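Duplicate of #3305? Posting structure anyway:
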């Protein structure tokens, strides 16, 4: 049984979190799902005779792109004819056959657009006798910005900012992104056709929906122009969305534009999409570490969505129930959850959904003994910050007030980063080169 010492619990929470990250390390994930034997590449058991292809290209985008490409180079080496992958600034690795372009995330930039255009042109080069391997991971949507004609990069940037600020879900954000892009929503698969296309995917989306991960560049699109317009109306952001974007979506609604390719389209006749890593693998590894440390453990869900502060209240409510009744599991307890919550931005502070989750939880935890909460992004970056997340306990609010910090004001201003920075309670891992959403750890001793 673990010690009830609070510092020990905080160390345990961080060890559990790091175990979850280690289980979805991108390079290892590719090796688990792919191997080369007797001249054939196997992807989840599906064989590809490498001698049957003239050229082999590697393309893709995402925070884990460099590590995934490194694994492919280890498997395929000189068989790779050319390769180009867009990654977030700083998320790099030493490669020999695949070029990397560092670009902006979560808001796309000109470097990302230049890289996306180069990737699109490389995809168009592929012939029927070629094999194209596409690497997709979290952040791939923002890192693959190639707007449709009539929509500028700044229009896409502004649209992304508006959608992030209004609290739209990742599914809703990507539905819009797909319809103002040349490569998303199956557009990249259309460019690759008629070559054979294999996509390796590290999922950062609740439910692992293929057409939502990185806005589905290599899969059929289940969303529509009409859905995009409904999203604008739902959040009342029609007047905030750039006029050219709104006009383009309206043309689609009016039937003046072809929608993105749908299931059954011939461009998907020679494609395979393989998920090589997901949130459940991370949470299961965290569960294993918690068991090793002596905690009774339960997985609440890996599909949690909703407003961050509300989800935090639910977690603390479970901690209080464990303390009072021993339900739904006995102490020492570890409650784990995954998924991706949203923050409706109302202030002008600095933070991310994980730091905001912990701050909201800390307010409800005030005065409770022997409870620790940690929330972090598996990619090592929470929002526009250099922290993966934060950690708190029942004494966090008291400590903050002794430093003349106002937790309520920090939460209202969405300024969780500076709050936890002053408490030295930020979780900083640096870029992990993977991304399977978030991992939350709550310990009750």
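Output from current build:
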């Amino acid at each position: 049984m673990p010690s009830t010492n609070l510092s020990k619990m905080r160390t345990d929470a961080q060890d559990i979190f790091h175990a979850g990250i280690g289980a979805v390390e991108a390079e290892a994930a590719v090796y688990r799902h792919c191997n080369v034997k007797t001249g054939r590449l196997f992807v989840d058991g599906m064989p590809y005779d490498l001698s049957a292809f003239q050229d082999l290209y590697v393309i893709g985008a995402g925070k884990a792109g460099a590590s995934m490409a490194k694994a492919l180079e280890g498997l395929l080496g000189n068989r790779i004819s050319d390769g180009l992958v867009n990654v977030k600034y700083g998320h790099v690795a030493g490669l020999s056959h695949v070029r990397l372009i560092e670009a902006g995330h979560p808001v796309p930039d000109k470097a990302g657009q230049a890289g996306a255009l180069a990737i699109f042109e490389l995809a168009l080069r592929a012939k029927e006798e070629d094999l194209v391997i596409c690497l997709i991971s979290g952040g791939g949507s923002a890192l693959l910005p190639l707007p449709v004609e009539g929509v500028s990069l700044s229009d896409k940037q502004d649209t992304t900012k508006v959608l992030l600020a209004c609290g739209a879900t990742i599914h809703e954000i990507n539905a819009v992104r797909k319809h103002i892009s040349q490569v998303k929503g199956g557009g990249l698969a259309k460019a690759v056709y008629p070559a054979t296309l294999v996509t390796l995917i590290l999922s950062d989306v609740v439910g692992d929906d293929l057409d939502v991960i990185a806005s589905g560049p290599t899969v059929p699109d289940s969303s529509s122009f009409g859905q995009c317009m409904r999203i604008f109306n739902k959040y009342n952001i029609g007047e905030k969305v750039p006029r050219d974007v709104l006009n383009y979506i309206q043309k689609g609604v009016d039937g003046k534009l072809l929608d993105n390719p749908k299931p059954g389209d011939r461009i998907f006749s020679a494609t395979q999409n393989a998920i090589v890593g997901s949130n459940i693998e991370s949470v299961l590894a965290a569960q294993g570490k918690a068991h090793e440390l002596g905690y009774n453990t339960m997985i609440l869900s890996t599909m949690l969505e909703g407003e961050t502060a509300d989800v935090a209240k639910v977690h603390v409510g479970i901690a209080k129930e464990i303390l009072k009744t021993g339900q739904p599991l006995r102490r020492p307890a570890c409650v784990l959850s995954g998924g991706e919550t949203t923050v409706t931005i109302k202030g002008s502070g600095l933070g991310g959904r994980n730091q905001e989750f912990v701050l909201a939880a800390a307010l409800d935890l005030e005065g409770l003994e022997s409870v620790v909460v940690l929330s972090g992004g598996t990619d090592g970056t929470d929002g526009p910050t250099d922290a993966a997340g934060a950690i708190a306990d029942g004494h966090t609010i008291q400590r903050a007030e002794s430093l003349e910090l106002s937790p309520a004001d920090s939460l209202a201003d969405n300024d969780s980063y500076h709050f936890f920075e002053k408490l030295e309670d930020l979780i900083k891992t640096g870029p992990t080169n993977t991304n399977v959403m978030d991992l939350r750890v709550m310990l009750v001793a």
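Confirmed duplicate; merging threads. The chain has two domains: 6-20+280-444, 25-146+181-223+260-277. Residues 308-325 form the longest helix (18 residues).
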